[in-house]
Amino acid sequence: MEALYATVTGVLTACGIYLTLRGRTFPVVVGLTLLSYAVNLFLFSMGGLASKSTTIVDSSFPYADPLPQALVLTAIVIGFAMTAFVVILAMRTRGDLGSDSVDGQRTDEPREERK
Amino acid sequence: MDHLLVMPIILPLFAGLAILWKRDASARFKRLVSLSAMVLLVAVSVALVTLASDDTIRYYALGDWQPPFGIVMVLDRLSALMVLLTSVLALFAGLYACAGQDEEGSNFYGLFQLQLMGINGAFMTGDLFNLFVFFEVLLIASYALLMHGGGKARTQSGLHYVALNLAGSSLFLIALGVLYGTLGTLNMADMAQKVATLDTSSAGLTMAAGLLLLTVFALKSAMLPLYFWLPRAYAAAPAAVAALFAIMTKVGIYAILRVFSLIFGNHAGALADMASPWIWWGGLATLALAAVGCLSARDMRTLVSYLVLVSVGTLLAAASLPGQQSLSALLYYMPQTTLVTGGLFLLADLIDDQRGKAGARIVKSRPLRQPALLGTLFFIGMAGIAGLPPFSGAIGKAMILQATPEGARVWLWSILLVAGLCAIVAASRAGSTFFWRSSEGEASGPLAGPARGIATAALIGAAPLLALLAGPITQFTDATAEQLDHPARYIDAILNPDPENQAMPMSNSEETP
């Protein structure tokens, strides 16, 4: 399970970084979102992955570390708010600058997806 | 008195909420609430500094959950000093905005107060994850404040700023995850204790996480490869916001000081002082490039932004030096450079206002309406920041130069002094253009007015004032440096507290976070 989990986190991070480095605001926003998903997964695993432990009710059973769960909840909430903000900001940039390039330069090239 | 330690966070929180709640109220109401909250905050921070001067490290356990399990707010000399610096800067920046800048967009004061809450929280917290949360609080308020009033330049630099900081937050969380994995705790004092007894197999992982944290803090404090967002963002921000942002790079420097002196400090075994070479070379390179940037600036706001970077470079280089003397010098240098750069951002706005179309660009234009007042402020501010005597910048720089050990002198002395020269050249070019090379025409801009005049003069007045008070301040910073250099005291105060050191006695538990 560790290998699968690590691969998923790694691939998500790689995709996130790749998209964040793109030149248009939409891929950048998607990249940041993927990056925050990857980080949430990573945080969740930081107390060690355990598939057969319960929540912490009675300390006589093996229980999963509750702290990463609390932290990941905080991180999800913050990440969600930030993503919402950056989406609105990207739309505002499109409106103010008349372009969705992160440098604010007008380009007449066709969109990357259409190539 | 027990609850005084959370006041720097609670006070702006409630003031901000009250203003956002009554968002349709008159500007007068918002200004009144905001300014009185900030005056109170200054009073609270003065009380905190007095409280911290007895060398006891106090903590406040939120919800009475004792460390290392609960989140604590810690008051030592360093955090008290930073909170006082923030509240003074914020008071005058807020006063400046009263003159009309707050009404250019919506919710100015509400966001301003929430940003203050984030900054103060970052300075007070004793928990690394909580530091992340307060970073996010101050960042999301700063995103909105940066774009206050709107406009192309602000939107564009805002997008860069937001994207970079979101990526930075992800790195911060990854570093936190790794550190929790290897150390099993996020309370800074507990982490410091655990690092010392770390087994060698996880030392590499912990080091990687520590350096990742350094990357994040370097982004906040604008160290060399990560500073390119700063000149544009600060030059585009409204004056009062830019003035408050002068403290934001110092939040990064504070975090570097705290984490790398407490957790990865001299007691940390294999990981002791691991970040110093990175901070040293990064700081020197920032200093050198910022000096070049000063010379290339064509606008007073850009010039002041590069002066912020010069001070960041100086502070970082000093932070990496061993010993208490350089730490004390750094802590003396920090308040004056923060206040004066804040004041210069305000002054740039005043000059912009009186020069019509030319704005703050360094070009010939019609004469200023109040050349004597603005010229004097410009001279004092620039001389203070470039480090000319008799102002406090000169004293701070001399202390840093003196504290540099023999082998490092050739680098720091040459780069710091040449950077000072570049700053003087750039400032005199800007000043002579603004005040002497004016073209024909009527001086017709608006007057500075009492609120804006007082705010600007008070911040720039820090340069001579802190030079006059150099004696008591260096006494305080010497003791602060000593406290920082002995992380064991901090660890002891948090993990093995005497009942007397605790800000909140065990029985007193009606407070909830």
UniProtKB/TrEMBL annotation, chain A:
Record has NADP as a keyword: no
Transmembrane portions of the chain: 6-21, 28-50, 70-91
Locations listed in the record: Cell membrane
Segments of this protein annotated with the region Disordered: 96-115
Membrane topology listed for this record: Multi-pass membrane protein
Database matches in Gene3D superfamilies: 1.10.287.3510
Primary location recorded for the protein, binned into one broad class: membrane
UniProt-recorded name of the protein: Na+/H+ antiporter subunit C
Species of origin: Larsenimonas suaedae
